[in-house]
Amino acid sequence: MKPDDFPRLQVWIENFRENPVIKANLPDPDELLTHSKQKRESPAFFAFFRGVGEEQEKATKEARQLLKIIEDHGLGEKKFFGGNKIGLADLAFGWLSAWHEVMEEVVGVKLMEANSFPRLEAWTKSFKEDPMIKENLPDRDEMLTYFKSLREKFIASATT
């Protein structure tokens, strides 16, 4: 696998490589890229974004169940998954902090409401406010444009 297969992930790896927490826990970049290619989305979250009608309703329920499990059993009462500092689990779930709002906007369905997932919402806010994370988040407008285009393609293929 070549780094240009996943350019944004490669940039992310390079940017975070010097962070002491990451440096101590980051697997080999080739291993991370390979794993990312194999597991780049959760089927429930992908179906939520890709689906229409009943398929999307089912995926929305499943994604909300997963969020509840993540909140209750992963995050619990902690600020971050590992405690008071960002750790590897936070980085693994970090895509939620940037992508879920854009996905919700494009789909037109609110998946993660603050009153339903208050601890995940608090985690999202804390995660995105960390200077290292904030500095490296993808541009929201670029993501919105990309996700809108992708969603249109999914809808077009579902109706043909």
Written overview of the protein:
It is built from 9 helices and no strands. Helices cover 72% and strands 0% of the residues. The longest helix is centred in the middle third of the chain and has 23 residues. The chain folds into 2 domains: 40 residues, no CATH class; 118 residues, Glutathione S-transferase Yfyf (Class Pi), Chain A, domain 2 (Up-down Bundle), CATH 1.20.1050. It starts with 6 loop residues before the first helix and ends with a helix. About 6% of the residues have low confidence. The chain has 160 residues and is mainly alpha-helical. Pfam families: GST_C (PF00043). One of its GO terms (molecular function) is glutathione transferase activity. One of its GO terms (cellular component) is cytoplasm. Keywords: Transferase.
CATH class bucket of the largest domain: Mainly Alpha
Shape: globular
What structural category do the secondary elements indicate? mainly alpha
Examine the secondary-structure arrangement and name the CATH architecture of the largest domain: Up-down Bundle
Strand count: 0
What's a quick, concise take on this entry?
Helices cover 72% and strands 0% of the residues. With 160 residues, it is an all-alpha fold. It has helices at 7-16, 20-25, 29-38, 43-50, 53-75, 88-107, 118-129, 131-136, 140-159.
